Amino acid sequence: MGLFDSFRISGSALTAQRLRMDVISSNIANAETTETAEGGPYKARKVVFTPLAMGAKGAPGSDLSTEGVAVTRIDADSTNPRLVYEPDHPNARPDGFVAYPNVDVVTEMVDMLSATRAYEANVTAVNASKSMAQQIGRAHV
């Protein structure tokens, strides 16, 4: 694994975690959206990551099998919406219940903290790699 491989790996993680934070933000912003263009309440979305295979680039005997991470898809959460009895709500069903999104704001905030920490860890890794590259550059001058 070369020095620039670490930039590529951390860069892919930064991109993936940034998208994860955007999706989580959208979930939180729509936690009370009872009607969407598709009909029905907003459905929470989850980001699915997949490791990028290193293939033949790995060093012999190395146990490193990935070259980063990619977002393969964004899935809609299939759990049922939460029903709240609000007969005066404009989107109330005939029985008086309103279907609210299946967004758990507490869970989303925990996921946001996790994504933020992962993003910060990868920024630290990029900065460490940059520092090492600068030291190698100075040693060869």
The helix count comes to 2
**Kindly, what is the distance between the CA atoms of the first and last residues, rounded to a whole number of angstroms?**
23 Å
Helix-strand pattern, N to C?
A: HEEEEH
Q: Care to count the β-strands?
A: 4
Largest sheet: 2 strands, antiparallel
Poorly predicted residue ranges: none
Summed over residues and divided by their number, the pLDDT gives a mean of 88
Helical proportion, percent range: 40-55%
Side by side, the strands of the main sheet go 1-2
In terms of DSSP E residues, the strand content is: 15-25%
SS-based structural class? Answer: alpha+beta
Q: What would you report as the Rg, rounded to the nearest angstrom?
A: 22 Å
Shape: elongated
Explain what this protein looks like in three dimensions.
The chain has 141 residues and is an alpha+beta fold. The chain is built from two helices and four strands. A two-stranded antiparallel sheet has the order 1-2. It has a two-stranded antiparallel sheet with strand order 3-4. Helix 1 packs antiparallel against helix 2. It is elongated and about 75 Å long. The model has no long low-confidence stretch (mean pLDDT 88).
List the SSEs and their pairings:
Elements: H1 3-29, E1 45-53, E2 66-76, E3 82-85, E4 97-100, H2 105-139
Helix pairs in contact: 1-2
Structure keywords:
141 residues; alpha+beta; two-stranded antiparallel sheet; 2 helices; 20% strand
Short description:
By secondary structure, this protein is of the alpha+beta class. It has helices at 3-29, 105-139, and strands spanning 45-53, 66-76, 82-85, 97-100.
